[in-house]
Write the structure tokens for this entry.
Amino acid sequence: MILVLGGTSDSIHICNKLNDMGLPYIVSVTTEYGRDIAKKATENVFLGKLTKEDMVSLIKEKNITQIIDATHPYATVVSSNAIECSKIINIDYVRFERESLIKQIDYDDIYVVEDIEQACEIANEKGNNIFIGTGSKNLDKYIELIKGKKLIARVLPTSDVLKSCEELGLNADNIIAMKGPFTEEINIATYRQYDIDLLITKESGVAGGFLEKINACKALNIPAVIITRKQIDYPKVINRIEDIEKIV
């Protein structure tokens, strides 16, 4: 049995590949939205946040022989726990990692930073109407660290996400509830509609519409702040769905 750590569109592609190969697996997700998406591929879905101890228990209970980690590139705690668990139980761990697209950017007005704090420093200095293109997670940090500016956050259109935004003090003027990824044209229209003068985004890869966000900034001469991925020493990494056949 394979344990797929999911919650991303990539993980669904991996599940479909495993379905084609006729291999048994279970998908672990942390949100109801992630569960709903995963159920398009399989009914064998585990919903809940796993501590390291929880993951070890799940691995033993389901007789897991391999972990395929397809979590978001910034879910570093989950990945680190999974690597440790694979060593404890002595099973194979494979990371599916979206390839970095930063080298493909053809735009000079970008600021590549390591964390939210650095991104907010630049936002305070250079922006007024700031587009948060990193989703709903960590919105509390942006609100805390960016002062006297208007924040526009694009988030998933689910009730729990919208409720969390409202609890942080964001209202309809600050929230764009849409599911991506988005084309360059949609991003351009959005930036114009909200008079955006600075973007904060993560290095999310093709599936996250990363280049489309940056190219829209280029079209409108808007500076973009990019929060890079934290580097983890993964034991084994693949970058293409087709490579699943080589590692299972």
